[in-house]
UniProtKB/TrEMBL annotation:
Residues 293-481 form the Carbohydrate kinase FGGY C-terminal domain. It catalyses: L-ribulose + ATP = L-ribulose 5-phosphate + ADP + H(+); D-ribulose + ATP = D-ribulose 5-phosphate + ADP + H(+). Keywords: Arabinose catabolism, ATP-binding, Carbohydrate metabolism, Kinase, Nucleotide-binding, Transferase. Belongs to the ribulokinase family. The gene is araB. PANTHER family: FGGY CARBOHYDRATE KINASE DOMAIN-CONTAINING PROTEIN, RIBULOKINASE. This is Ribulokinase. The lineage of its organism: Bacteria, Bacillati, Actinomycetota, Actinomycetes, Micromonosporales. Its EC number is 2.7.1.16. Pathway: Carbohydrate degradation; L-arabinose degradation via L-ribulose; D-xylulose 5-phosphate from L-arabinose (bacterial route): step 2/3.
Length: 560
């Protein structure tokens, strides 16, 4: 990236924390030009089988090391500034986004519990990544009690809160390791924690507080609701709560310590934290109502603004100001998308065609429906509309004539069907979806994009930046630094999108309508109680894994 700038140019840095790495991006305030970027891979990645010290973990766990997040600031940010060739003194702000719900227990000063020596071998002391799904039974209890008591907030979350969210993970923490729960003076989103590390000020952002923390109309779930779940759970909100700030606000100023990590000037603006999907709406010029953004990577998150509040069955939440101030922000998502395609290439495709490029080439030559397959896209559970992470994947229609490219295309199509289900749920509930903007790494697959256009019967706009979340965080940093009066003006000046790159083909769309009908039938049968075989198989698997563990390798014991 070569800079073309002047002496008066000012810059902002956006840092995007993903599942496996963090990326820093240097952006010019005036026009959103991306001048330099750098990536730092997490040293411990996703901790899913054993802690760094060797302690085994049960199925469906996904942890991370908070030091990896600090290292992104220490390595990726200075490298991005160097790559941009700009004077660090001209940087006026920094913003971050994070995968969510990613949460960690800390002391009152922000020290992660996993960094206290006596708790380092306790799994619940570590960061729980968004795709930690071991709290599904706790989520089930929360949902059942919410409906039993007719809690007013449950409808704002489509009737179910997720196992990925703060309350399910917090309840699991309490019931499986009450000592760690008691030591946790804060239970905080990683987005807010890293902002705390940057500016020394503890804050909460309205996005994660609303979507992941069940904050509605200024209220968290009542204490008597929490104690009905567990008598010792009544103080959970006190661990979550903190100074709440709107998106685009200034959380504080960069501390001397964080300036030393990043090489940026002490005292510059630090923007309030955000979620990777929601922040991308700004870089996609999609903060106005009706334009849905699908951020497609390992998973997909769908966000859209609306002028009105509505309850949409099976969606992830509706939050006032959750995407941008002045609108109701809606979220839905699919827990596995790119991860599904990657699984097939790595574990199921034979040598010689075990690449996305080759499989895509072979799959693209097929007419719609020629493979005779339908797949369910639940290989990492279902986030929307069923909100059940114990569901699993399925492929129907395989014969001795089925070939790897057939399966690969069926998997691509299954994720498009899942997105159409989400869009139709929004529209049926009165939330307009006029067009789609696609962001994320999967925009590079032209076959996948055309499938989505054909299946959804909508034109696809493509975000012009390959770093949508990082650019969105930089846009929020510009607002926090006072360079723009609002996210709307900053989005127009710094965001970019290519309009109607893929248009639906009427003939293919009609063929997909028939296949989509079959997908819906399978979706409802296996996901809405027609046959709970997936749940029974998950229980059998978990029991077998636990039985196979030796006494010294038992993953977790409840601490009395």
């Amino acid at each position: 990236m070569n800079r073309v700038d002047g002496a008066d140019d000012r810059y902002v840095v956006g840092v995007d924390y993903g599942t496996l790495s963090g990326r820093a991006l240097v952006v010019r305030v005036g026009d959103g030009a991306e001048l330099g970027t750098a990536v730092h891979e997490y040293g411990d990645g996703v901790i899913s089988t054993a802690l760094p010290g060797g302690r085994a973990l049960p199925p469906d766990w996904a942890l991370q090391n908070p030091q990896d997040y600090r290292d992104v600031l220490r390595y990726a940010v200075p490298a991005a500034v160097s790559a941009a060739g700009v004077d660090p003194a001209a940087v006026v702000g920094i913003g971050i986004d994070f995968t969510a719900c990613t949460v960690l227990p800390t002391l009152a000063d922000g020290t992660p519990l996993c960094e206290t020596p006596e708790l380092r071998d306790r799994p619940h002391a570590w960061v729980k990544l968004w795709k930690h799904h071991a709290a599904q039974p706790h989520a089930d209890r929360i949902n059942a009690l919410a409906h039993e008591r007719a809690e007013p907030w449950i409808g704002r979350y489509g009737g179910k809160i997720s196992a990925e969210w703060q309350y399910a993970k917090g309840l699991q923490l309490l019931e499986e390791d009450p000592e760690v729960y008691d030591r946790a003076e804060r239970f905080i989103e990683a987005a807010d924690w890293i902002v705390w590390q940057l500016c020394g000020t503890e804050t909460r952002n309205v996005c994660t507080a609303g979507y992941k923390g069940i904050l509605q109309d200024g209220q968290y779930p009542a204490k008597d609701f929490l104690t009905a779940l567990n008598p010792n759970f009544g103080d959970f909100v006190a661990k979550l709560d903190g100074p709440l700030l709107p998106l685009g606000a200034r959380a504080g100023s960069l501390t001397a310590q964080a300036a030393a990590w990043t090489g940026l000037p002490e005292g510059i603006a630090v923007a309030v934290g955000n979620v990777d999907a929601h922040v991308t709406a700004a870089s996609a010029q999609a903060v106005q109502p009706g334009r849905l953004v699908a951020i497609m990577g390992t998973s997909t998150c769908h966000v859209v603004n609306s002028a009105e509040v509505a309850e949409v069955a099976g969606m992830c939440g509706v939050v006032d100001g959750g995407i941008s101030p002045g609108a109701w922000g809606y979220e839905a998502g699919q827990s596995g998308v790119g991860d599904i395609f990657g699984w097939f290439v790595e574990h199921a495709a034979p040598a010689g065609i075990d690449s996305h490029e080759r499989l895509t080439e072979l799959a693209a030559s097929q007419p719609v429906g020629a493979h005779g397959l339908i797949a369910l896209d639940w290989w990492n559970g279902n986030r929307s509309l069923l909100v059940n992470h114990d569901l699993s994947g399925m492929i129907v229609g395989m014969t001795l004539a089925t070939r790897p490219a057939d399966i690969y295309r069926a998997l691509l199509e299954s994720t498009a069907y899942g997105t159409r289900m989400i869009i139709e749920a929004f529209v049926d509930a009165g939330v307009p979806v006029n067009d789609l903007v696609i962001a994320g790494g999967l925009t590079n697959n032209a076959l996948l994009m055309q499938i989505y256009a054909d299946v959804t019967r909508r034109p696809l706009n493509i975000i012009a930046s390959s770093q949508g979340p990082a650019l969105g965080s930089a846009i929020h940093a510009a607002v926090a630094a006072g360079e723009f009066p609002s996210i709307h003006e900053a989005s127009q000046a710094m965001g970019r999108v290519h309009e109607a790159v893929y248009r639906p083909d009427p003939e293919r769309a009609r063929a997909y309508d028939a296949l989509y009908a079959e997908y819906r039938a399978l979706h409802d049968h296996f996901g809405r109680g027609g046959n709970d075989v997936m749940l029974r198989l998950r229980a059998i698997r978990n029991a077998a894994v636990e039985t196979a563990a030796t006494p010294h390798e038992t993953p977790l014991e409840v601490v009395a």
